[in-house]
Amino acid sequence: MLYIVAIIGARNIDIKKVFKMILIEAAILTSAVVILCWLGFVENTVTYRDAGGSARYAMGFIYTTYFSGYLLVIVALWAYIRREKAKWFEILVMGILAVLCQVVSNARIDFLTAILIVFAHTDNFSGSFITKFFLKAT
After folding, report:
1. Which residues touch 65 (CB under 8 Å, ≥6 apart)?
2. What HEC string does the chain produce?
3. pTM of the model
4. How far is it, in rounded angstroms, from Cα 90 to Cα 113?
5. Measured between alpha carbons, how far is 54 from 72 in angstroms, rounded to an integer?
6. Within 10 A of 44 (CB to CB), how many other CB atoms are there?
């Protein structure tokens, strides 16, 4: 029922503006939690993939994949909003953030999806395989 009300209420609203607000909110709140974690105000939970395996840091969130999930949302929204207007520097920053997130949280699916989004976005500059076959809908 709530979805129906939301769909009807958003009838004349530009979805790009909604995505931009979600992006701003997600970026600010995720950055705030990570900074508070670095400063020691929020606990950084550490789990291990296997006994004696690699450490997975939650960066102030309850579980390790929450941080990488929020970063994935930020990268996906950024890619949708910027589309063809993105600069190489922005693409590089998003790729570096995805790699750093993988190193810290060791969340593989979110990392691979974020990297795929970044590579698909770089493909917009060259117009090759990914754009021609997989991203025709956008």
Report:
1. 105, 107, 110
2. CHHHHHHHHCCCCCHHHHHHHHHHHHHHHHHHHHHHHHHCCCCCCEEECCCCCCEEECCCCCCHHHHHHHHHHHHHHHHHHHHHHCCHHHHHHHHHHHHHHHHHHCCHHHHHHHHHHHHHHHHHHHCCHHHHHCCCCC
3. 0.77
4. 17
5. 21
6. 15
Each residue's pLDDT tens digit, 99-138: 888 888 888 888 888 888 887 776 555 555 555 555 555 5
Kindly tell me the burial class for residue 81, based on how many C-beta atoms sit within 10 Å of its own C-beta (0-12, 13-18, 19 or more): middle
Buried (b) or exposed (e) across 85-96, using 16+ Cβ within 10 A? Answer: ebeeeebeebbe
Residue 122's pLDDT is what? 66
What local confidence, expressed as pLDDT, does residue 119 receive?
A: 77
β-strand partners of 94: none
**Two tokens at 66?**
């929450």
Q: Give the pLDDT band of residue 12 (cuts 50, 70, 90).
A: confident
